Amino acid sequence: DLQVNEERLRIATEQMVNMVFDYDRYTKGIYYTTDQMLKYGLDCPYLSNIPHSLIEKGIIMPESAQECIAAFEAIDQGADRASCNMKTRLNDHSVIWEKVTLINIFDEEGKVTRTVGTIEDITERQKRELSLKYMAERDHLTGLYNRAGLESHMNLLLDLSGKHAFLLIDMDNFKMINDTWGHQTGDKVLKDIASILLQSVRDHDIVARLGGDEFVVILKNLEGPKEVLRRADQISYSLTKTYEQSTQSITVSATIGIALIPDHHTSYKELYAFADTALYQAKLNHKGKCAIYE
């Protein structure tokens, strides 16, 4: 009615949000002003089975589904407040980010008398946060993951099943390029190495630069040690390259130490230590070789 709509408008104005709705915890339905939902392609003042119906309609996108479900479940169970960030698809097929906040209103006896929800467009904020996250996790020279980005991905990977490999790569003779031709040329070579590594792995593998001429590749979902060595040998072969400047030439190659997941995994630090030990053994045998930690 008019009074309810005016109340929603007041809340929206105070909260600086784009939409206010009422949520019925018992029917799982939401009530709202119809024109607020036209952007989603919805033209009725009530929707049931929230948030599942919006997920099924493709309005709430799959990557946000679980977070949205958890927020509504929390408010159903009597939480004072719950919120979630959701990626939503609009009627014109564009995609935005929105923050949903749900608030339970209690009477003097502690019973929920009303549940109010707000929706705020956070697209620009989300873009800024994603941009900051990208910058924080990336090596500024090569665009590869840096140590922080690698550790973040490793923590997720170690919780998953499957056989994977941690490849620690050291570039042999790279120091000679810096000493002979200077750091500007050295930076160009590092960018070239990064490009070669990205071309040598699959889309779901991870490539990182830890600093200097030290790189890491995470090969995911492998059959076993034989496949690991085959792929590592291919990477080493691809990285062997002669660089020329004026009348001089320098050949760089890669020595690779390998730790296996889950065989050697307990943490990122231990995987690195195992791979570093294998790298040392590989260098003792011959530069440009690969070795698995034993």
Overview of this protein structure:
It is a single chain. The protein is of the alpha+beta class. It contains 9 helices and 12 strands. It has a 6-stranded antiparallel beta sheet, with helices on both faces. β11 (248-261), α9 and β12 (290-292) form a beta-alpha-beta unit. α6 packs antiparallel against α7 (183-200). The longest helix is centred in the middle third of the chain and has 18 residues, at 183-200. The radius of gyration is 27 Å and the shape is elongated. The mean pLDDT is 88.
Structural class: alpha+beta
Helix fraction bin: 40-55%
Q: Which sheet architecture does the biggest sheet show?
A: 6 strands, antiparallel
Mean pLDDT score:
88
- What strand order characterises the main sheet? 3-2-1-6-5-4
- End-to-end separation in angstroms reads 73 Å
Low-confidence stretches: none
Shape: elongated
Structure summary:
This protein is of the alpha+beta class.
Features of the shown structure:
40% helix; 6-stranded mixed β-sheet; 294 residues; elongated; 9 helices
Topology:
Blueprint: H1 2-15, E1 19-24, E2 29-31, E3 46-47, H2 52-56, H3 62-76, E4 81-89, E5 95-106, E6 112-121, H4 123-137, H5 147-157, E7 164-172, H6 174-181, H7 183-200, E8 206-211, E9 214-219, H8 225-239, E10 241-245, E11 248-261, H9 268-285, E12 290-292
Parallel strand pairs: 11-12
Antiparallel strand pairs: 1-2, 1-6, 2-3, 4-5, 5-6, 7-9, 7-11, 8-9, 10-11
Helix pairs in contact: 6-7, 7-8
